[in-house]
């Protein structure tokens, strides 16, 4: 099964919204494809992290509009290049920034400044189109401020103004699975219908939508950026429908206000041509070799298409991801905040994918330095351990690391195993791939899922960073491994954990290797 097809199915797979046949196909593919399995785990981990961000203050605001409580479920389309933006946006909607979370607020401001500066620099240079197209419903004004469409994707800037109350409003990155708060149509490519990945549960054929909220000083206003697919032709009209907006800075899930409306915008757009180069250069690092097949310089990003042998036979690990940057003159260009699309395929043992870096479109360089900042890999070394339920805590030694089973909690609906990853400061790995089996229960009768209870970010020096960016790594600290019956029936007998299986661990390394590439 094609990796791109799997990529479009992952969210539905996580949410259990696939047919039995498609579910089995995705499951089999994930077991065989390390890269797709990595993306699956990364998305699932992000969703789990988001659910932990709850500890904030109450705004004590009220709003007299058509409201309903929102059931929070995972988004459908997410790319690894926007995971940080998703975390920022979701946290801002789900929670309020308290004084002790000031560093987070600074990160949001800085992330917004980078995005807005890149956007305004392009528009001021005549790249893209400035707009002032508005619609008002429910005393809320939604304005399309501009659009940049190129051969990589389309970026639209939207401003939301609350004309009645000093409450910031934004679309929500987690929404009802059968109802998207933003739909994109018109003369925009639709990857779902194009790849025939429209499921019965997703009958509405909106194009791919990703977005992130941007910081504004006004208490009644929010700006956000929409990323979607490319224009079908050289120019056309884009239809935007926003049906739900949500209050930001809430004390908890129950406090979120879901404001229904009908904000419809039709905006014109023209596709801007990109500049493409085929260097056929390679970079060797730690016994691996990346081949650079194509470099596309577009207004929204500099896109690097590359391939790499995804299994290192000598060191016995799978490459998950390579992270790049570009140096041009004295400036370093990192991952683009205006680009969210990702492609992925595997052929003959090679992973072929892309990286979207900050745009060099206005600079128009003749040569660049391409840098491999870091890469992630996963070891495969399966070890099985007996769980001694009567002697806790239990220390598990694996590959020089110590994992501790701290507690086992027997509930009516499930059994929870609380496990702490190695807590030593100098630990090298990011995360462990874990499985729990149940005593006297066939594997196909019990399902297991993992919840991340505690984690932290670290930079290349192993220190907690002052602000988030795409180059930090996530370190799992405390997990809840949950066992429950697949038929969802309450346990007549306790589900007793029997075996802990460690399949491998994920690592990040920072080679800082670079090569000079002439663009011709």
TrEMBL record:
DUF4179 domain ranges (all copies): 82-161
Keyword Acetylation appears in the UniProt entry: no
Occurrences of domain Putative zinc-finger (ranges): 6-36
Transmembrane segments: 81-99
Keywords: Membrane, Transmembrane, Transmembrane helix
Gene3D superfamilies per UniProt: Anti-sigma factor, zinc-finger domain, bacillus anthracis domain
InterPro entries, sorted: Anti_sigma_zinc_sf, DUF4179, DUF5643, Znf_put
Domain DUF5643, first and last residues per copy: 274-396
Domain of life: Bacteria
Family affiliation: Belongs to the zinc-associated anti-sigma factor (ZAS) superfamily. Anti-sigma-W factor family.
Protein name: Anti-sigma-W factor RsiW
Native organism: Tissierella pigra
């Amino acid at each position: 099964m094609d990796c791109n097809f799997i990529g479009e199915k992952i969210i539905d797979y996580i949410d259990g919204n696939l047919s039995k046949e498609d579910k089995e196909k995705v499951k089999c593919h994930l077991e065989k494809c390390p890269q797709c399995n990595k993306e699956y785990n990364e998305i699932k981990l992000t969703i789990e992290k988001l659910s932990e961000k709850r500890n904030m203050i109450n705004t004590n605001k009220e709003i007299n509009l058509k409201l309903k409580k929102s059931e929070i479920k995972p988004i459908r389309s997410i790319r690894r290049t926007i995971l940080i933006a998703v975390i920022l946006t979701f946290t801002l909607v789900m929670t309020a920034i308290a004084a002790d979370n000031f560093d987070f607020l600074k990160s949001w401001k800085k992330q917004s400044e980078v995005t807005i500066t890149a956007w305004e620099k392009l528009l001021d240079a005549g790249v893209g189109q400035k707009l002032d197209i508005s619609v008002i419903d429910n005393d809320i004004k939604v304005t399309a401020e501009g659009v940049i469409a190129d051969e990589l994707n389309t970026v639209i800037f939207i401003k939301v103004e609350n004309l009645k109350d000093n409450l910031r409003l934004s679309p929500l990155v987690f929404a009802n699975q059968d109802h998207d708060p933003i739909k994109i149509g018109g003369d925009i490519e639709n990857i779902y219908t194009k790849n025939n990945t429209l499921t019965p549960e997703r009958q509405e054929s909106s194009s791919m939508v990703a977005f992130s909220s941007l910081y504004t000083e006004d208490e009644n206003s929010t700006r956000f950026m929409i990323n979607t697919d490319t224009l079908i032709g050289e120019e056309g009209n884009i239809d935007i429908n926003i049906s739900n907006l949500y209050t930001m800075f809430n004390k908890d899930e129950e406090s979120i206000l879901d404001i229904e409306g009908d904000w419809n915008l039709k905006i014109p757009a023209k596709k801007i041509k990109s500049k493409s180069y085929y260097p056929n250069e390679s970079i060797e690092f730690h016994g691996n070799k990346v081949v650079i097949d194509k470099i596309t310089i577009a207004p929204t990003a500099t896109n690097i298409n590359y391939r790499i042998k995804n299994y290192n036979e000598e060191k016995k690990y799978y490459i998950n991801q390579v992270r790049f940057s570009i140096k041009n003159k004295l400036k370093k260009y990192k991952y683009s905040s205006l680009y969210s699309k990702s492609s992925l395929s595997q052929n003959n043992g090679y992973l072929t994918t892309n990286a979207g870096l900050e745009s060099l479109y206005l600079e128009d360089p003749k040569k660049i330095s391409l840098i491999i900042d870091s890469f992630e890999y996963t070891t495969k070394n399966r070890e099985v351990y007996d769980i001694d339920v009567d002697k806790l805590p239990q220390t598990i030694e694996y590959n020089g690391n110590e994992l501790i089973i701290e507690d086992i909690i027997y509930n009516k609906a499930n059994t929870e195993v609380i496990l702490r990853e190695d807590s030593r400061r100098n630990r090298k790995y990011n995360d462990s791939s874990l499985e729990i089996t149940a005593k006297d229960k066939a594997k196909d009768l019990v399902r297991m899922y993992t919840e991340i209870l505690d984690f932290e970010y670290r930079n290349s020096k192993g220190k907690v960073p002052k602000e988030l960016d795409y180059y930090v790594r996530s370190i799992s600290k405390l997990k809840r491994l949950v066992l429950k019956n697949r038929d969802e029936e309450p346990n007549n007998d306790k589900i007793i954990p029997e075996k802990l299986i460690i399949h491998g661990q994920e690592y990040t390394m920072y080679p800082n290797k670079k090569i000079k590439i002439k663009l011709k």
